[in-house]
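Title: Comparing notes on inverse folding

I've been comparing how different people in this forum approach sequence design from structure. To keep things fair, I'm posting one structure and asking everyone to reply with a full sequence. Here's the target:
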């Protein structure tokens, strides 16, 4: 009822392509259901990066959908984005794993009103029939990554995360976007330091800094 009333007052458009209609149109939903592009590597590739798979390149509808979910709180996109992330994990061919999202800072979570990475991880885990576990926590504050070079991002993130929890099943690190790979390197390092066996990483999208 509330949605119907809002539709009378506020025009609805797709968050991916701005077409009139629901927040996710059929065409953009099909993009999220497409076969993952598979294994990706950034250029240059940082040392310590685990095997990474992506659903899509970070451009077009996928980029806009991720930003709408993350920055504009379009939470109805959690399930379809999570399903795409689950398909990406399957493309890695790993079995009997748990998903561990890269954590956002407490400040970012407060500002956004939700933990976007954990929501995506939980949705993907439900599709996969496994668990999403908080095995990483921020260890210190980091500077804004925007505009930093690959080397600067690596220095900015070194030691920024800490692993928690008891080691158990193999872990796939999950995130929304991979740019230089520095965040995934730090996540894998922190998990390994805690004894968690990291087998791979999966992201919804990878920027054009990667190669197939």
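Reply #1:
Here's my take.
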């Amino acid at each position: 009822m509330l949605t119907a009333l809002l539709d009378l007052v506020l025009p609805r458009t797709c968050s991916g392509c701005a077409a009139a209609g629901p927040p996710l149109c059929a065409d953009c939903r099909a993009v999220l259901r497409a076969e993952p592009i598979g294994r990706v590597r950034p250029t240059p590739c940082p040392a310590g990066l685990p095997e990474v798979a992506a659903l899509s390149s970070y451009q077009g509808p996928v980029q806009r959908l991720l930003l709408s979910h993350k920055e504009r709180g379009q939470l109805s996109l959690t399930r379809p984005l999570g399903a795409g992330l689950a398909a990406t994990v399957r493309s890695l061919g790993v079995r009997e794993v748990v998903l561990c999202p890269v954590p956002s800072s407490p400040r970012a979570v407060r500002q956004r009103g939700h933990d976007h990475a954990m929501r995506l991880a939980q949705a993907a885990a439900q599709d996969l029939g496994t668990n999403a576990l908080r095995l990483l926590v921020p260890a210190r504050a980091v500077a804004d990554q925007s505009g930093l070079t690959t080397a600067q991002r690596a220095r900015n993130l070194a030691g920024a995360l800490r692993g928690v929890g008891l080691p158990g099943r193999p872990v796939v690190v999950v995130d929304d976007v991979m740019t230089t790979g520095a965040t995934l390197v730090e996540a894998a390092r922190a998990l390994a330091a805690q004894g968690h066996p990291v087998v791979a990483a999966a992201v919804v999208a990878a920027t054009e800094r990667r190669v197939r």
